[in-house]
Amino acid sequence: MTFRMGIIGCGAIGNVHAETARRAGLTVAGNWDLLPDRVAGMASKYEGCVGHASVSDLLASDVDAVAVAVSNRCHVECAVAALEAGKHVLLEKPMAMNVAQCDEIIAAAERSGKILQLGFVCRGAPASLAVKDFIDAGRFGEIYHAKCSFYRRRGIPGLGGWFTTKAESGGGPLIDLGVHVLDLVMYLTGSHDPVRASGQVVSKFGSPIKDYVFTDMWSGPPKLEGIFDVEDGVTAFIRFGNGMTLELNATWAANLPEGVHANGVTLLGEKAGCFFEVFGDDVTIATEEEGRIVDLNPHFVGGDNKKDDAWDRQYAQFIDAVENGVTPHADGAAGRRVQSIIEAIYESSEAQREVELH
Known about the structure:
Layout: E1 4-8, H1 12-23, E2 27-32, H2 36-43, E3 50-51, H3 55-59, E4 65-68, H4 75-84, E5 88-91, H5 99-112, E6 116-118, H6 126-136, E7 143-150, H7 166-169, H8 173-189, E8 194-202, E9 233-240, E10 245-251, E11 264-269, E12 272-276, E13 284-289, E14 292-296, H9 306-324, H10 332-351, E15 355-356
Helix pairs in contact: 1-9, 4-5, 5-10, 6-8, 8-10
């Protein structure tokens, strides 16, 4: 079976979905975006792709599944509509704006019997898989602490657009970048019971927009008359029911030389520990063997572009779930767990205390 894929949202990530679907052998059969030029541009790249004037028109077509890659505010509406229309859904991160919306999406998936998979693409990075194999073999022992970092020097995305408008995005780097590494740590360690969180969000760089000097702007250029009412940095500490702790640092903008803080994941276990960059070329695991302290470099297979490898694996897993009925690799429960942590961190920052997860 080669099924027909629809793309809801034709921005940068929507185009990555379309191209990855093509590489996976799927037919990119339809698309929609608020901007007609984007719809036409994507449709022209894929034979038989029909541009639609509305989401409902796309969902009424003969696509079998859709990728939802619109602004965060629209995730719940589009995902629920797609599931109710009998379409399988690959939903970009974050799952929604809040836990209540996650529950709404999960309920729609259960009613429909269709596949709901979250776009936690970092799980499929070659480095992540190498570490996962080592952990699953019992070679880390109990993992008692993790740290994940995501630093940019001056990389606020689409300043003044939906990324920096809380009503559209739900927040800044916590909900944009933090979702990836929070999910990845829970996936790698098997710690699925976050119970308490404390955190602090800050906003130091994006306002006023006209004064922001930047090195990079994903989804740019800046909209000088736009809105910036989200955080541009977050520090958080999460406790799990099994005793593991997790430290998170994520920022869109910081006055740091490039490379001072590598972006990646640190894991500390009783038998071994490691740091790795998610889309890096190698992994070093610090452990001991036969009474000697050693560093191991597990071999992993990957092409020149580790992000493409991860995207291809994500689509292979989605196809397997759709065609063979297997449990989605990153299901709605995984998305809800991450959302509950994010919600608790925002609440903690506002209340200035540690909070229980809902």
